[in-house]
Amino acid sequence: MLFDTHTHLDAAQFDEDREEVIARAVEQGVTRMINVGFNRETIPSTMKLAETYDFIYAAVGWHPQDAITMKDGDLEWIAELCEHKKVVAIGEIGLDYYWDTSPKDVQHEVFRKQIGLARSLNMPIVIHNRDAHEDVIRILREEKASEVGGVMHSFSGSWETAKMCLDLGFHISFGGPITFKNAKQPKEVLKQVPNDRLLIETDSPYLTPHPFRGKRNESSYVRLVAEMAAELKGISLEELAEITTKNALERFGI
């Protein structure tokens, strides 16, 4: 009973075999997935997946890399979609200082607007944070994101950053990087995250876990993430799956 809390099954990388990819995930014990739509192109395809499969849910939001493309009316569009019974979060939203595709001030504005929307709708948020730990935490605090909480997706920060996120009421989600041999920090952070705030994900088709690193990721590989997380926590795979699935169901109100 595994829950992949962050995937992009609508990505072009799956155009040739999407149904088979989803079937493989089910065969590996993945009972639920959250597909994430993050811009004008991926939000409609995400909604279609959620409406097609009972066990696929949707998160919708505007990615920081695409912040500069957000137009008047897009926030209202997201708000309308949040009324859909399969939409369980606003995201992925946040800051990305690695890819220079949207100016920082534009990213900040779009991030703040979406936190405000989440608070008005009482929806959890899914945070994308790349090389922007300090500003992400500051904006989450200033915009009172603790009122709704959410998920720190594909967490890559230090334990000090994780503690600040936990204090704000967020869950911490880990993906393929915890299986990398040289990934000392994510492994150490995962060990310290309280069991009741832990989530797992793939972020497929990206961040493929070992031993498939370098190839296309898919939701069935969340089992590899779960196996490593269970090993790091010193518990069985079954217990890890039960804990993280329960956390996800509660966090997303499913």
TrEMBL record:
Residues annotated as binding a divalent metal cation 1: 6, 8, 92, 203
Pfam families attached to this UniProt entry: TatD_DNase
Signal peptide: none
An MF annotation (GO) of this entry: hydrolase activity, acting on ester bonds
Hydrolase recorded as keyword: yes
GO cellular component: cytosol
UniProt-recorded name of the protein: TatD family deoxyribonuclease
